UniProtKB/TrEMBL annotation, chains A, B:
Residues 255-363 form the D-serine dehydratase-like domain. Pfam families: Ala_racemase_N, D-ser_dehydrat. It comes from Caenimonas koreensis DSM 17982. This is DSD1 family PLP-dependent enzyme. InterPro entries: Ala_racemase_N, D-amino_acid_metab_enzyme, D-ser_dehydrat-like_dom, D-ser_dehydrat-like_sf, PLP-binding_barrel. Belongs to the DSD1 family.
Length: 377, 377
């Protein structure tokens, strides 16, 4: 355990009290809606964080890479959905995980993909459990609920000898919204589209046990989830400034921040220069297109209190420029002398967290425990 | 060694022939200008790459984090400049490196910083070698060459018992230029400002042996470097699309690319979806403000040949959308079937490389050797 003032900077801080509150918020909401909750662990890539999600009631996890599946399976989690369309080159890696006892589910959204999975499965005597990805918002991948191809994909899997486990969708377009009404409508669009796809598969005589939906904004906005069996969400565990702009959290719910140290100033410009640049914050400028642009992040004092109107306005690789958001030229050398510690709330927690080999998890007593995280593929 | 088609994706490929050409280009230019060359290793963070730079004639290295200093010192490199303003909290780490025999140089640009270094040095009986950072372009940190504070900083170091080793500057503003004339002018501004600062220190009776300048664009544009003792540059080792827009390389000089696999399509939109998203490419959209916007990267075939007009137009965490840059809706399912490998040239090599735990270094025979890299602080 290290006291905050002795941490080398930049460091990725987790406010564990806020994290616990965020986990409880989501799990309680899912319990009320009567669905299982499968956290997307791409946000943290950290076993200590995921253990807290499981302890709160999560059922299985969702991953964005097979490396995540391998790491969390090694840590004892078996029910894993790999939620990126399966590339044929990765089937051997998925097979190895299943052979070790991992209950790994994979996804596809094309006849080509389904055929490749089935051929590989039959060749190796493995019945892969495959879910079909559904496009409910035009955002990215997936088969549209009414598309004739949906049944073709289902048949290619089922008749190809694979286990057609269900359907899943992710309404990523919810990230572009910012009113409760629009978010509720998107949650209902995500739900109804995915349920409709499941119904069409069942009407065609195909199995479809699971109906999986979710994104942090739609999960928190959904009013009812009839026909849905599980929800997935990731970034809620930390929240971030993009989520605050969407309206599903407040800045002081954000559990992840970057601890940084003031290393210099340009007085006449109203700049303090800190040792966290874009390598620490990531290049994510997700709030640039939202109603409140926080630059590279919202500046807080070392205790995590938001300093209204002060942002990281610009960044180089290992330098951040801290200044007034309105361009006024305060004497930053006086306000934040060399050596001052600050915390920066990130635009996008998934992107910022990925820049660090470990978190510093702040305990109630104010000391930090090191929680490792991994990266890569 | 792994054959390209068996690599799991996304993977960070180094075209070693291009890298060797880039290293030779820069070192030859520096030899012609009669200055030492100190590569900035923040771009690669990889000992195999840095060994090739040293073998070509580099004198010492420049780092952006003390972790880089530790890693490269452990690999046998002793002459290291840590080119980010020293934070007092990191002095113990710098001291430990020097005590092990590392010839580590640190920098500052303020009396506050200089005083903190000198106090710590005296307390621990260590004469730190310190260079003063000069601001020659208004871009970031540094004391202006004519600023009275320059002499105060020099005195705080020299009279404080430290070794005032020299001055250094980085004209990062060169990244916003794109004509040979403007780049030559910026190179001269960088040179003359730094030489002037050195002269002022010497005129005040202070030592100033080293005059260190550089950025990839100014290093390649400089016509003469009178008074300069060494040049630093980093991204030239790989180059990238930002550098191509600035005009200091061509796209087919770029030695770093991300190998990716097609995992699906949205035919009616003209999209191929690949398994490299922003987690692989980074969120860097550095070409967005330049004359040619490449989205998240320029698409090439698996052999590295540029596919004109095809870019990664959008990205999610682990999904990239490959489409025509002009918005035309080609049948990407026909052109790039599921399983097709593509290479994506990055906007910013430093940012993209940082997303990967290792490189796949392509040898002349077409096989890849794994070269580890590190990250974090």
């Amino acid at each position: 355990m290290t006291a905050l003032e002795h941490l080398s900077t930049p460091a990725a801080l987790i406010d564990t009290a806020r994290m616990a509150r965020n986990i409880t918020l989501m799990q309680t909401r899912m319990n009320e809606l009567g669905v299982k909750f499968r956290p997307h662990v791409k946000t943290s890539k950290c076993i200590e964080v995921v253990r807290a999600q499981v302890a709160a009631g999560a059922s299985g996890i969702c991953v964005s890479t097979l490396k995540e599946a391998e790491q969390f399976f090694a840590a004892g989690i078996t029910d894993i959905l790999y939620a990126v369309g399966m590339a044929p080159v990765k089937l051997a890696q998925a097979l190895a995980l299943r052979r070790k006892g991992c209950d790994l589910k994979i996804i596809t959204d094309s006849v080509e993909g389904a055929t490749a999975i089935a051929a590989f499965g039959r060749e190796h005597g493995e019945v892969f459990e495959v879910w079909i990805e559904i496009d409910t918002d035009g955002h990215r991948s997936g088969v549209k609920p009414e598309d004739a191809v949906l049944i073709d994909v289902g048949r290619a899997l089922h008749e190809g000898g694979m286990q057609l486990g269900g359907v899943m969708t992710h309404a990523g377009e919810s990230y572009s919204l910012n009113t409760p009404e629009a978010l509720r409508a998107m949650a209902e669009q995500e739900r109804s589209g995915c349920v409709r796809a499941a119904q069409r598969l069942r009407d065609a005589g195909l199995p479809c046990a699971v109906v999986s939906v979710g994104s942090t904004p739609t999960a928190l906005a959904a009013q009812q989830l009839e026909g849905v069996t599980e929800v997935r969400a990731g970034v809620y565990v930390f929240f971030d400034l993009v989520m605050a702009n969407i309206g599903v959290c407040q800045p002081d719910d954000i559990a992840l921040s970057v601890l940084t140290t003031v290393i210099g100033h340009q007085r006449e410009k109203g700049w303090a220069i800190v040792d966290a640049g874009w390598m620490a914050m990531s290049r994510d400028r997700g709030t640039a297109s939202q109603q409140h642009d926080y630059g590279y992040g919202q500046v807080c004092d070392a205790q995590g209190r938001v300093l209204e109107g002060v942002v990281m306005s610009s960044a180089n690789q290992e330098h951040g420029i801290v200044s007034a958001a309105d361009g006024s030229r305060e004497d930053m050398a006086k306000r934040f002398p060399v050596g001052t510690q600050l915390r920066i709330l990130p635009n996008h927690a998934c992107a910022t967290a990925a820049q660090f080999p470990q978190y510093q998890a702040l305990q109630a007593a104010g000391e930090a425990a090191e929680w490792p995280r991994f990266y890569g593929w």
